[in-house]
Amino acid sequence: MKSRAAVLFEAPGKWEIVEVDVDEPKEYEVLVKYTAAGLCHSDDHVAKGDVPSAHYPYCGGHEGAGVVQAVGSKVRDLEPGDHVVASFIPGCGRCRWCGEGKQNLCDNGAFMMLGTQLDGTFRLHHGGQDVAQCSLVSTFSEYSIMPEWGAVKIDKSIPLESAALVGCGVPTGWGSAVNAGQVRPGQVVIVMGVGGIGINAVQGAKHAGAVRVIAVDPAPFKRESALKLGATDVASNMTEATDLAQSLTNGQGADCVIVTVGVATGEHVGQAFAATRKDGTIVLTAVANIDENVIPVNLFEFAMYQKRIQGALFGMSSPSRDIPYFLNMYQQGQLKLDELVTRRYKLEDINQGYEDMHAGSNLRGVIDYS
What we know:
Layout: E1 2-8, E2 16-22, E3 29-38, H1 41-48, E4 58-59, E5 64-71, E6 83-86, H2 96-99, E7 124-126, E8 129-133, E9 143-147, E10 151-154, H3 160-163, H4 169-180, E11 188-192, H5 198-208, E12 212-216, H6 220-228, E13 233-235, H7 238-248, E14 254-259, H8 266-274, E15 276-284, H9 299-304, E16 308-311, H10 319-331, E17 341-345, H11 350-358, E18 364-368
Helix pairs in contact: 4-5
């Protein structure tokens, strides 16, 4: 089968639209035709060289939804015609982490940047070369192969364009507040960076009962959007946000600061640390350059003020459990998805989509394959 796909031939580099050959699904795999794919900053990290792929050419995309076209001989729970959300962590259900309910840390995550399927071989090809798949799902290819465990079946009444967002951005942001930050009613929360992840940390903090949610972003559009989606206050920088949090808490600072900037640095974590009260939590969700390894925090204060710096992958959520939960909340009007999509793009316009993201004019851009 042939498919249009956005591919990197090197990094740093630009996405190039090419035709790839897609293999038939093997016994535990499914073939999916995507309807929509989110333009997540994580894919841009690969394009910019912040996080390298183990193999090039590389087909990106890890957030998307579509319709199953064919299934392998041993697939049990899916059939052609099923609507699915792609999960970039195909939980095995057997490793220690899955057994502890931490599917986001499944040992299958070791394949996320290798580019192969679980058997170590490739399913996409171009010009006689194997093409690596992003996180085993490659939503930047209209047709793609994935493990059956990487395709979460959803109700057919849910628009696939909206469902695509719960493949990454929504659970990652929401869970950063609710799971990693353990936000509680009455607390003061700062969300640093209000893009596709941060805006959902705002939604999560509001849902958890935070009395003040302070959204920080230099882009006016994002600050305005945050106020519509749950923020009580906005600031253009962390100095303003820290002053406000301290004024609300007798000088103590925020109960939780969630770092969801585009490219994390040690300085961002240091700013979040300074804005957090005693016994408070700093959640680091944003992806950093792979060589970034210094956090400027005072170790005496770290210990004596009993602060916690918590990393968060996929918002500490479990895809097969939580994706249906989020979509149920959406159906009940408790979670906003449609309002997150700022612009839709054709696959050929993917580089423009990322330029708009960097310009601060999008909460979430979405590739529309229809």
